[in-house]
TrEMBL record:
Residues 88-117 are annotated as: Disordered. This is Predicted protein. It comes from Physcomitrium patens. Residues 88-106 have a biased composition (Low complexity). It comes from the Eukaryota.
Length: 338
């Protein structure tokens, strides 16, 4: 059993010795290159540190680990030499004047060639695939701004950002597409609040077309029950995405948007001539201020009891008052208008 372990340790030591030789060879090759030798040496040291940890952890106790200890000593010698070489090769920093920042001429950006691509409609926005095999998403608002339809051919201009990322801008439409061939169906309808605070989009032409509203649109756009909207539904799906939301205008905005013109009164229209001059009228029920202007216009006088005409406001008078007024007026042949 001990012989097998010893053979295994010898095999491991031979493997590590071969790695050490290869590391020395890599170091010699890297030193021969004109590139930054310090960075390359640091990378090699990082690998040797890792091997050092492995060897120390697998070092057996007793007489069987002599070969591995020799291997570790050689590894330590190599690490010392590499660390010393780094210290010798690192130059003393010399202060240099600040370099002038030269901004690239604007003409270079203008000379960037535009790339054609094809737009594919999604249930919310879409995606443009360029001829250089790159692709990027666009929002629903960008689809409306550029009036894009499914499979429209567009021309996009790339621009380099500060984070080395390339952003594309839609310049123009080369050929318009057709949404009729899109896998997305478009509806005009309204937002409806269902049970358990569940939001739906309902087709205005067929209330049976009722689709669950996506959570993102609920949290971001915050619709109200009954708001008119345009929404999209992907074929085979039952979740709607808001394309546009038409919120109700506030009351103050409506009043400001509609001009009110003064209504001209007809000055030449003659007032009705008094036709009850000298008559006295008693009204049973209600308040006097309800009838004063009307009675004054007829030329009559509003009396408390002795009168020529008795008027009774039935919905403001009880039955007892009605029959009492009728009985009191019969001996005088008063007109009775209940």
């Amino acid at each position: 059993m001990a012989e097998r372990e010893l053979a295994g340790l010898r095999e491991s030591a031979a493997t590590y010795e071969g790695e050490l030789k290869r590391s020395k060879l890599r170091l010699a090759i890297e030193r021969s290159k004109p590139d930054d030798p310090v960075q390359l040496t640091k990378r090699l040291l990082h690998c040797l540190y890792f091997e050092q940890d492995l060897l120390c952890k697998s070092l057996p106790q007793g007489e069987g680990g002599s070969d591995q200890r020799q291997k570790i000593r050689k590894l330590f010698d190599l690490i010392d030499q590499l660390e010393q070489s780094i210290q010798e090769e690192v130059p003393t920093p010399v202060e240099s004047p600040p370099a002038a920042v030269v901004s690239p001429p604007q003409a270079e950006e203008d000379d960037v060639e535009s790339i054609p691509g094809t737009f594919y409609r999604g249930d919310h926005g879409g995606r443009i695939y360029l001829e250089n095999r790159e692709a990027f998403n666009i929002t629903e608002s960008m689809v409306h701004d550029h009036h894009l339809q499914h499979e429209a051919e567009v021309q996009c201009k790339p621009s380099h950002q500060e984070n080395s990322h390339i952003q594309y801008e839609i310049e123009r439409i080369l050929f318009q597409g057709d949404d009729r061939y899109s896998p997305v169906r478009h509806f005009m309808g309204y937002v409806e609040l269902g049970e358990h605070f569940t939001w739906y989009c309902v087709d205005m032409n067929n209330s049976e077309n009722r689709y669950l509203l996506h959570d993102k649109d609920v949290h971001i756009q915050k619709p109200q029950d009954g708001d008119a909207c345009a929404f999209n539904v992907l074929a085979g799906n039952h979740v709607a995405r808001l394309s546009r939301l038409y919120r109700e205008m506030p009351v103050e905005d409506k009043s400001q948007s509609v001009k009110k013109y003064p209504v001209k009164k007809e000055e030449d229209k003659s007032k009705r001539a008094p036709f009850l001059t000298g008559c006295r009228i008693v009204i049973i029920g209600g308040l006097a201020k309800w009838f004063e202007s009307v009675i004054t216009e007829t030329g009559a006088e509003l009396e408390c009891w002795c009168s020529d005409i008795i008027l009774i406001v039935i919905f403001q008078t009880g039955c007892a008052e009605v029959w009492m007024a009728k009985g009191s007026g019969e001996p005088y042949n008063n007109l009775f208008h209940p």
